[in-house]
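ESCALATION

Customer reports they have been waiting on this structure for their group meeting. Please prioritize. Original submission:
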Amino acid sequence: MSQQVITYPASKRSDIFEQMHESQNWYSIEYDGWRLPATDDARADCGKWLTKGCLNVAAHKNSQFPGKIYIKTFQKSCYRSCCEVCFKKWMARESNKATRRIEKYEKLSKKPAKHIVISVPSWKYYIPIRELRKEAYQILKKVNCIGGTLIFHPFRYSKKVREWYYSPHFHVIGFGWISYTEEVYNENGWIVKNKGVRDSTFATFYYQLSHAGIKKGYHTLTWFGDLSYSKLKIEKEENSDTCPLCEAKLKLIFHYGLYGYVPPPETEVELYEDPEGWHIVESKIPERKASKPCFVIYKKHKPLYDMI
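Update from on-call: job pushed to the front of the queue and completed.
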């Protein structure tokens, strides 16, 4: 008998997420250092739009854009899960890495990934998370989950009162013929639900990370079984931070035109431009004492501070 594969969408969650994020206790709920994402202040330059590019016109002479430079705008990010500005960048980066790992195993095994939820018995709620995670791995092995990723969720959301409450559970994107869930419940009290196959692995990760538990010194997302780091190797992603014309590493640049400094547009663009007015930004520490480096822009040998 073949196992039925159930598919259902995972990407239509934005409205639900916004409601949860605007709940009364998103910023205040905490257990043993575990909190929800986006609960800390951003750094001074988080979300700031900057430009990077390649000004080496000579190296572009034999390309399809001779005499041009390459420029690319981007938004500065700290990629911290706790940052109120950058947490979505963190979610996207982690979701992309996790999706690549899942898809690699899907290709090798010819099996689809499933979304599984395992809930901790109430009498074990206050056991240290490290111990709960170890027991969760054992439970997954008993229900024939052969590998995947484990995402810890310390809290659940009540739509009725619009608040979060402590209820530890794990979300799994994994593989295997999930069975013996009733036997596991009767024996150990753990509730295992097989949610089936998602339409979008990336969207599933993105949504689950949006309200996952975060704590300094702990990984929100961990891998186990056949998808552990010791068993599954993933090729490194190609470096997208290089010039498409000469493959040189992109540098932070700025435009200083006839009327002074021109800030970049607050949107992602990639252009091939004339080199006039473009300069490389060099990060240096001034002679005066400072706790952090600041940008020094060199134009006609005169340093200009704090322009970008």
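Sent to customer with the following note: The chain has two domains: 7-39+87-225, 49-77+239-305.
Escalation resolved.
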